Amino acid sequence: MVLEKQVFLFLNIVHNSMKQRITDTFRRGGFQLTPEQFLVMDTLWDEGMLTQQQIADITMRDKNSIVKLIDGLENRELVQRISNPKDRRQNLIRVTPLSNKIREEVLALAYESVHRIIGDISPEELSVFVKVLSAMESNMDPASDLEAMAEKYPTDKKGKQ
After folding, report:
1. What is the pLDDT of residues 15-69, one digit of tens each?
2. What is the DSSP code (8-state) at residue 35?
3. DSSP secondary structure letters along 81-124
């Protein structure tokens, strides 16, 4: 198999498998969350109240997909839209008390799932993998800088992984 085809095929397989594994982990834990919804929740937990556009920018998703994700989270009473007092054309999104109540359990499930996925891959190998993914994204979008994003939005507030 040609190397380029392997890259395409394997990235697609791993992406889909990872999403399914995380979804299954959340479901077994009693939470009906998709990985994409989790990323929105995690962003709000870390950053506080944000506009839909800010969430889209941070998660590198288009605004329309963010609207759909927020709709689903709002239906589950995990986020709430409020009118921005500084600009009535915008909604601010904030987490609800229910969301804050489940935060630690959901985060634990997400970390558990990722730890199973990365298994016994060394930190050095993971670092190289992240750099390669960042270079691939930069090849597709020169304005994108995943390594800068990692610095701006570290895995925790102390910047530790």
Report:
1. 999 999 999 999 999 999 999 999 999 999 999 999 999 999 889 899 899 999 9
2. H
3. EEEETTEEEEEEEEE-HHHHHHHHHHHHHHHHHHHHHHTT--HH
Question: Of 4, 52, 31, 12, nearest to 113 (Cα)?
Answer: 31
Place of tokens 């995380």: 22
Identify the H or E element spanning 50: strand 50-51
Q: What is the fold of 3-119?
A: Arc Repressor Mutant, subunit A (1.10.10)
Query: Where are the chain's structural domains?
Result: 3-119
Residue 149's Cβ-side half-sphere holds a number of Cα atoms within 13 Å equal to: 15
> Residue 61 is inside which H or E element, if any?
none
Gap between the Cα atoms of 134 and 44, Å rounded: 24
